[in-house]
Amino acid sequence: MNLDHVRRVLNRFEREGYDPIVVGGIAVLIAGYGATKDIDLIVASPKFDAIEYDFREDIEMEIISVTGGWVANGRFYPQKDRPGGAYVTFDVLNPDRFVGKSFSGKSFFEYVRAEASTRTTNGRIAKPPVVYYTRLLVPGPHGEQYLLRIIRDLDEGAPTKWLDEARDIAIRFGTEEKVQERLRQIEAILNSADPHSTSAPSSKTVHRGHRKVVQSK
Questions:
Q1: Of 66, 33, 34, nearest to 50 (Cα)?
Q2: Residue 76, strand partner residues
C-alpha cells in the first residue's frame, strides 16, 4: 500500500458521489509517526448506508462486510482485476458511531471536513487528533489494538497534545466519558511499563516514568 493507492481509493469514492476523508494510520504516518497497511476513511452518514449497494459490481472496489454498523470492510484492486487480483484493504467508518446521543454523525463529519482535515494532493487527510479520537472509541479487541498503536506512536515521539485534542473533540461531541476511560487505560499502561519485560506486546511499552495523559479541564 502506498500514497498512490490512497489517492486512487479516494478518487474512486469521489466519482461515486462520496466525500471521503482519510482518518486512520495514513494520517498519523504523514505526520511522521506509526505505520499502517490499510486505508481508513470516513464518509457522510447517508452514503455509508449505501456503500454496499454502490460498489456491488465495481471492478476496482469490493465491500466485504459491514461490521456492526461501525465499519465497512473493503478491498481496492489497483489492476482492476476483481476478484482474484492483488488488493489493498480499506475500512470506511460510520460517523454515527463517533458521537453521543445528542449529536449526529453528520455534525461530526462536517466538523472533520471543515475544521480538522487538510486537502492534499492525495486527497483530504484528517489531523492526527481525529484519528486518535476515533481509535479511542472503537470497542472490543480492535479497540485494545488501537490503544497499543497510540502507545507505540507516543513511544516514537508523537506529541501527547494529540490526546488532549482528542479529548476536546470528545467534549464537543458528547463522548467524553468513554474517551476519558480509554485515556486512563493508556496512562496506566505507560506508567506500569517494565523496560526489561519480554512478555506480550501490551507490556513492552518503552518506560517513560510517570506519564500524565489525562488532563482535567
A1: 66
A2: 61, 88
SS3 call for 66: strand
CA dihedral of residues 125, 10, 91, 29 (deg, nearest 10): -40
Grid coordinates representing 24 are: 486512520
pTM of the model: 0.85
Cell numbers found for residue 147: 490503544
Query: Assign residue 159 a region: left if phi > 0, alpha if psi is -120 to 50, beta otherwise?
Result: beta
Cβ neighbours of residue 67 closer than 8 Å, sequence gap 6 or more: 73
Question: C-alpha angle with apex 68: 23 to 188, nearest 5 degrees?
Answer: 60
Backbone φ and ψ of 180, nearest 5°: -60, -40
Three cell numbers at 199?
Answer: 512478555
Looking at the chain, which residues constitute the CATH 3.30.460 domain(s)? 1-126
For residues 48 and 63, the answer to whether their CB atoms sit within 8 Å is: no
pLDDT, averaged per 10 consecutive residues of the chain (217 residues), comes to: 86 92 91 85 91 89 87 90 84 95 96 95 94 94 91 92 96 96 90 50 37 54
Q: What is the CATH number of domain 1-126?
A: 3.30.460
